Amino acid sequence: MAYFPDVPKIAYEGPQSKNPLAFRYYNPDEQIEGRSMRDLFRFAVAYWHTFRGTGSDPFGPGTMSRPWDDGSDSVDNALKRVEVAFEFIEKLGAPFYCFHDRDVAPEGRTLAESNKNFDVIAKSLKEHQQKSGIKLLWGTANLFSNPRFMHGAATSCNADVFAYAAAQVKKAIEVTHELGGENYVFWGGREGYQNLYNTDMKRELDHLAKFMHMAVDHAKKIGFTGQFLFEPKPKEPTKHQYDFDAAACCNFLRGYGLWDHVKLNIETNHATLAGHTMMHELAYSSIQGKLGSIDANTGDLLLGWDTDQFPTDIYLTTQCMLVILEQGGLQPGGVNFDAKVRRESFEPIDLFHAHVGAMDAFARGAKIAAAIRKDGVLKKFVQDRYSSYDSGIGQKIEEGTVGFAELEAYMLEKGEISPNKSGRQEYLENVVNLYL
Ligand code: XUL
Ligand code: CO
Prior knowledge:
The protein is of the alpha/beta class. It contains 16 helices and 14 strands.
């Protein structure tokens, strides 16, 4: 049964093509810096937005037309969605997908029933993976939708909720393992607070760390060797999320002994909600050795919430790829489109337009970034800018062989600094434009 009868397998047709259902830049076998685009990006489709998104917002119900979906939360409907998902992902040519436990399988009346539903769907997912060659980039657990998680999950004031969340994550890691998932994501759902008057922040942070250690221990126990990823987001749904930004996450991981076990999954719209650019969050994670994977999307410049739009801005993707290429790719992570079509884009075909455009935007960004890197313009400028640390007193500062006393003696003797040089920001912005 074809759920998208009018859509052929999306092919690469080159930049001259005007076919909206063809790639103009994403050419899976084309090499960029010694790696095929397929292996460089490791594109993933997000099950929750693409196959479960309804288009509802606080002012009205869903708008999406999904002719295959009977609107129920039955296991049969969930099984049908698996077929739809794999037809979509196969036609798109994305090598991976990602899910939360509750996107793929309905929650039952009890935990045992939920686990049983999950097993039924996991069996079908596995069969479809084997048939299509599509793989699981990461799995995760939804610890935020059910009202039981109103105060959070691992950071809930209710110990039973901690236990429930632990049981849910145990199962989600096991299913991720069974499906060959290459990563497992922790995004803090409601792990944060609305008001400090009723919150013991120290206890909540301690509990979150305990929870992540338990996950790491369980992974070891069952032989899951995938990468754990922590996903920063500063706010929404809570007023303050503990996984605020890359720096806060790094501090948390370091302080609680999780440093060697967990990397970061950086999302564009979360970066901007935190008052950072995506490039900042990527660069910061990368210099810490913690850039594991990305959730590719974009916010709206004029809106202050997580709109999760598909990324089409070439500047944005170029900046992402400058950092990703510099660190030699994201594997075993990848580029997951944690993005949803607009409420007004309600037809199934809109899902294709969204993903094709975003994959092309990344491919184009990667080509531009590779060209900039090949010419070495930015790198050379930055090297020159810091060259005073390559020899003389700068070298001694970096080597740690001088202290305040030696530096005072040096400056008393020299009298005044060697002149500063221009930062040339405008020139460099023009240089980047030459490659677009
Ligand atoms: C929420 C978000 C999540 C995580 C996975 O803003 O990004 O979908 O990526 O739980
Ligand atoms: Co995300």
